[in-house]
Amino acid sequence: MQVLDPLKRLKILDVAAALFAAQPFHKVLLSDVAEAAGVGKGTLYVYFKNKDDLYLSVLYNGFCQLIDQLQQKVDQNQQSPLENLQTVVREIVRFACQNPYLYELMRSVPWCQVTDNALWNGKRTELRALIEAIICRGVALGEFEDPHPELTARFIPHLVRSVMMDRELSSTPETISAHILRFACAALVPKPLDRM
Question: Which pLDDT belongs to residue 192?
Fold first, then answer.
């Protein structure tokens, strides 16, 4: 049995990320990835089942970086809950717009076939926990009203997903972010009459 080299896997992922970013998914050939990474095409199959698996692995690494960056920004900044929520929504939308093929894969690749589905679920849980914590802090400070922050924390990423699944979307990331925030704030921010 061949011993897997984590550095070689990371190099393949970095090269693949650059190729997927430079051209559409269908134009990226595994032979191009192998050549750019300085490995044989057969080596790719030691680390990844197929092109979809490679792409999902690239996206998972990007998603992990997104979650880590969000946690740092929210932890390091002494911003209001609303400002933190704005940061989270903008960054999720930015990631979604930079990785539109992820949403196409969600349609076509059964998630039971994804090698590391438990890892994806763990990261999704981290994202929901981060959003829930922001909302709970907003409720504690009186900036938000939400009897079920755990549900709202699920809604926000799914708002992004539902927009990105629309193949005829022509809105900019800024417009998408602003509208999702407007929608969320209409539900979260107490109305003046509610405060009486």
Answer: 63
pLDDT at 136: 96
**Residue type present at position 181:** L
Give the separation between CA 140 and CA 2, rounded to whole angstroms. Answer: 54
Helix orientation angle between 149-164 and 81-98, rounded to the nearest 10 degrees: 30
| Cβ–Cβ under 8 Å, residues 88 and 43 | no
Hey, what amino acid is at 83?
A: E
Q: Is-above-0.85 flag for pTM?
A: no
Measured distance CA(29)–CA(61) in Å, rounded: 20
pLDDT at 110 over 80: no
134 plus 160 within the same structural domain:
yes
Sequence-distant (6+) residues with CB within 8 A of 95 are 62, 63, 66
- Residue with tokens 């799914």, as numbered in its chain: 158
Distance, in Å, from the CA atom of 57 to the CA atom of 15, rounded to the nearest integer, reads 12
- In this structure, the answer to whether residues 18 and 114 fall within a common structural domain is no
Q: Indicate left, alpha or beta for 55 from its phi (over 0: left) and psi (-120 to 50: alpha).
A: alpha
58 contacts 13 by C-beta, under 8 angstroms: yes
pLDDT digits (tens, 9 = 90+) for 38-95: 999 999 999 999 998 898 888 888 888 899 999 998 877 789 999 999 999 999 998 8
Q: Is 76 in the same domain as 101?
A: yes
